[in-house]
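Fold these two proteins, one after the other.
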Amino acid sequence: MSIDPRLMERRKTVAEDNAKHNVERLLKFLAVLLAAGGVAWLVFSPWLSIEQVEASGISASGANSILVDQGVVAGSPMLMASANATEQALLTDPWIAEVTVSKHWPNEVRVEVVERVPVAWTNTEIGWTRRAVDGVALPSEGEPTTEMAHVDMPELADVAAETSPDMLAALEFAAALAPGLEAGAVIHMQEGELWAEVKGYAVRLGRADEMTEKALSLAALLREEIPEGSLIVMIAPTNPSVLTPSAADAAAAATQTSSDETAETEAVAPDD
């Protein structure tokens, strides 16, 4: 049985076309592999690897360990380092208030850290810890020391301390105290107002406002000769007043009498 020569030619042409297409596909696949390999080599090559990590502002925080965990170290690929993810990881450290991570091609990463600074020992429902001026609790070991001011608010829930206006005002006052005044200073609440004890003087601070101004005004006032036992009133920082011991006692007695009279009136008032 003979085969038509034209059919044989057709089969040969189809076979050659298929072979040609297969070769072309293979060549394209190899080209893709070579390109991918080239890109991978370039990404992981020393040309696009981190050569230097320039970090500033790191002291108390664990920023260096976090950078290692995030792969922001010499020798790591620049493309694999995420500035945003690294910033978010660093901000989980309570010591770190602000951070900026920037990549400078081809091989440098800069990390700028602003750390929190403890300004006072604070006492809340769970006990004593150090806090920064923004209310964030900082890792604290041991018992409170007298080098920093104390904020004593044992009735305040710890979870509320970071946003409490009274706590934040007390911390602002502590942070603004002049050098030498913060040691041994105690800030507390009394009858709904902020009070402090500074250098042996009772200081009525009043509402939780203008605390920096009150601290600066107090420093100026304490440079003068003030009788021991005096009460310093800083409710208006631009117009502070000093009540001598006798005047302070009289004011306290008047306040107590007024409170007693109010309580007595409320006790005998008829029900509506």
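Now the second one:
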Amino acid sequence: MIKHVVMFRIKEAEGLSKEENIIKAQNLLKSLPSKIDLIREYQVGINAKESERAGDIVLISAFDNMEKLAEYSSHPEHQAVVSFLKKVWFDVMVVDYEY
């Protein structure tokens, strides 16, 4: 299995406040498991504790293997969410690992 972890730091953009973009990003991310059957595990969380080092949203998902993760990454539904996220993040970090 492959664990895919993504942490986003969100900004005010697209005519929405930072907080509004966080909620919109969360809702878009949470919609993906019902649209993409490659996903084995999926969690989306909003940061609960402010810190200079903290991200705003974390996505933790799992896939059978790297090939399935690559299929997910290029899936049109995922790409639509990424298109929005690219407009509202100012920092993003990704870790993919086998477990």
